[in-house]
């Protein structure tokens, strides 16, 4: 039997139908293009409206796959209580922040903001996972990464710097991902039910949180949209149907299927490898923004981007085991049946 998560059950063990490196590469392309799709979607939809449609579409896709795979959602209230935090940090909050940021900055720069996720993950992990000491080199890398963010923002010049509020929103979106993954590792370690159960639960929580926000947003500004689902005429010369189609694709593929693939990669290759996808996403977003949308970046943005990526690489590199830990490890390996 084959599950919706792409795993074939053979009875003895689970064999992946699609190798994790393939899913990894697809994730880079899908999430890298999400910033382009958001920019297109914003030509006809309000930011909160777009993030709501994105999350709801992804949730519907995963619920369908969960039903086909005969999976089940978590039943413990304690698990759902923690999933509430994870769902907000991994879907509702960052999706909305990135959408809001792209009303003020380019899609390429918003994608660069996403590169701060590994740095934010280490900071959040140092607070939530106190049993895991942070090596000095990673602390230095975090500081260097922060300096890279300052270089991108270029607050010393008024001519070439990006909109600081918009870029801060993009950085906040990347930081939200880091907090969400660290929180999940701290409070939901060992809870994963496999398949699409956990990503479906995360998006269900995100849906429950974003819908009231969308309704309140519409209620506060009823003159802009007649109803919460109204779409205004697109700007930028796009066809009337293209922005909505872009957001539906962003929800179905860039959210629903991508969440499933991300969990599959983490399960197969581990969280360290899974987190490295963040290095490549901004590269794709920058290329698409420049080549497709005609956006441009200043030299300070490109230099800061390189600094942040380098710092993120150092931050996410596995720590070397201590001498005592190596002795214990060799001792365990020397035992029969170990």
Record keyword descriptors for this entry.
338 residues, disordered C terminus, two-stranded antiparallel sheet, globular, disordered N terminus
Structure characterization notes:
The model is unreliable at 1-14 and 322-338 (pLDDT under 50). The chain has helices at 20-41, 47-68, 77-101, 107-113, 117-128, 136-153, 164-187, 197-220, 242-269, 271-275, 277-291, 299-316, 323-334, and strands at residues 7-9, 14-16. It is mainly alpha-helical and 338 residues long. It has one domain (16-316). The longest helix has 28 residues, at 242-269. Strands 1-2 form a two-stranded antiparallel sheet.
Summarize the structure.
This protein is mostly helical and 338 residues long. The protein has 13 helices and two strands; from the N terminus they run ββααααααααααααα. Helix 1 runs antiparallel to helix 9, helix 1 crosses helix 11 and helix 3 runs antiparallel to helix 7.
Please render the helix and strand layout as text.
Layout: E1 7-9, E2 14-16, H1 20-41, H2 47-68, H3 77-101, H4 107-113, H5 117-128, H6 136-153, H7 164-187, H8 197-220, H9 242-269, H10 271-275, H11 277-291, H12 299-316, H13 323-334
Helix pairs in contact: 1-4, 1-9, 1-11, 2-3, 2-8, 2-9, 3-7, 3-8, 4-7, 4-11, 5-6, 5-7, 5-12, 6-12, 8-9
């Amino acid at each position: 039997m084959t599950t919706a998560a792409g795993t074939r059950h053979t009875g003895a063990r689970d064999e992946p139908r699609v190798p994790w490196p393939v899913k990894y590469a697809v994730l880079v392309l899908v999430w890298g293009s999400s910033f382009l799709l958001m920019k297109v979607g914003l030509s006809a939809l309000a930011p909160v409206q777009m993030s709501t449609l994105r999350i709801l579409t992804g949730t519907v896709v995963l619920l369908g796959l969960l039903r086909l795979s005969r999976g089940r959602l978590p039943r413990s209230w304690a698990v759902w209580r923690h999933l509430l935090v994870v769902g907000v940090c991994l879907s509702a909050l960052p999706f909305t922040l990135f959408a809001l940021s792209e009303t003020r900055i380019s899609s390429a720069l918003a994608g660069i903001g996403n590169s701060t996720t590994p740095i934010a993950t280490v900071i959040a992990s140092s607070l939530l996972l106190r049993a895991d000491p942070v090596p000095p080199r990673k602390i230095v890398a975090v500081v260097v990464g922060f300096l890279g963010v300052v270089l991108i923002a270029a607050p010393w010049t008024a001519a070439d710097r990006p909109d600081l509020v918009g870029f801060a929103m993009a950085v906040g979106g990347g930081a939200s991902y880091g907090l969400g993954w660290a929180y999940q590792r701290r409070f939901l370690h060992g809870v994963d039910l496999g398949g699409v159960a956990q990503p479906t639960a995360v998006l269900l929580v995100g849906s429950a949180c974003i819908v009231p926000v969308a309704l309140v947003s519409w209620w506060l500004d009823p003159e802009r949209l007649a109803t919460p689902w109204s779409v205004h005429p697109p700007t930028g010369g796009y066809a009337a149907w293209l922005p909505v189609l872009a957001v539906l694709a962003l929800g179905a593929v860039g959210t629903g299927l991508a969440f499933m693939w991300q969990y599959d990669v983490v399960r197969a290759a581990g969280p360290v490898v899974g987190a490295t996808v963040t290095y490549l996403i901004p590269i794709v977003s920058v290329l698409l923004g420049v080549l497709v949308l005609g956006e441009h970046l200043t030299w300070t943005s490109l230099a800061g981007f390189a600094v942040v990526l380098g710092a993120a690489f150092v931050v996410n590199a596995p720590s070397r085991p201590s001498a005592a830990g190596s002795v214990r490890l060799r001792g365990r390996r020397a035992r029969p049946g170990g």
